[in-house]
Amino acid sequence: MSCFLCDAPMRPDVLDGAFRCPACGLFRSAFPVAINQAVDDRLDEVRRERALKALRVANFERLLDGCQPHLAAGASLLDVGCAHGWFLQAAAARGYRPTGLEPDHEVAVRAQADAPVIEGFFPEALPPGATYDAISFNDVFEHLPDAHAMAEAVRDRLNPGGVLILNLPLAEGVIFQLARLAARFGIKGPLARMWQEGLPSPHLAYYSTRTLLRLTRAHGFQLVAQGRLASMTTKGLWARIRYDRSVSPLQAAAFYAAAAGLTAVSGLLPPDIGYFVLRKV
User: Fold this and answer.
1) Rounded to the nearest 5°, which phi and psi values hold at 138?
2) Residue 229 in 3-state DSSP?
3) Within the chain, where are the H helices?
């Protein structure tokens, strides 16, 4: 496997199916994607929605605060992989004109009850010629199989001076690095969970700030704002761990204790989740 950023040969990382580029530091995986395919009932979707909502909604408000100086009043916004539509609702409450795009059929149907959501993949499912003032990827960009093609498609669908908004987990984050360390000692469960191995849409890349900016600059985007978002909160944490039915109660208790401890000191450590606002130039 070659690195799609620098073309150097990638080396296997500590988790089977994951790789790291020794030249630029990019992480990527070869995990299979099974969106809208018949899969087992490993995910408890009701518990998953309840577990994620409080943290995601709080992060979306912080993200919109960071984006506000770079978005005109009433700006049109496309949220790719909008899931339950929470970001759409937060953006609409601030006067923006959001549209969602969601490839997962069941999730899209639920989101359509509360927000304007198109079912399908970006950019194929969009109306011909549709363009936007902003295009956001909230916990989505790391799931994409071809980041270069996606960056070019975003450029084509952005209005002049439009912005790309990325919100994603970071490889320099302490949780990812601790999970890699644990995997070196044979404890691979936390790292597999971070890669979302075995789920319908696993992570296909793990970017650092450096590798992400290298990618976006290559496609004509200029960083105008960035910040950190919360990766965990004790509210809903137990449900978040347990929505994956393959996690036993004993494993969940261990994850909860470790996560709660990290949450208490997370502000002093490298960010586990970052956001980036990048202007098309």
Assistant:
1) -100, 110
2) strand
3) 45-67, 86-93, 105-111, 147-157, 174-184, 189-195, 209-218, 237-242, 249-265
Q: What pTM, to 2 d.p., does this model score?
A: 0.85
For 26-47, the pLDDT digits (tens) are: 999 999 998 876 555 555 556 6
* Interval 142-197: pLDDT, tens: 999 999 999 999 999 999 999 999 999 999 999 999 999 999 999 999 999 999 99
Output the CA–CA distances (angstroms, integers) from residue 130 to 74, 124, 156, 159, in the order listed. 16, 11, 10, 10
At 275, which amino acid appears?
Answer: Y
Task: Report helix, strand or coil for 88.
Answer: helix
Task: Assess if CATH 3.40.50.150 describes domain 11-32+44-280.
Answer: yes
pLDDT given for residue 250 in this prediction: 80
What is the largest distance, in Å, between two alpha-carbon atoms of the chain? 53
| Residue at token pair 């577990």 | 51
Mean pLDDT of the region 209-215: 98
CA distance 46 to 50: 6
Domain spans in the chain, listed from the N-terminal domain onward: 11-32+44-280
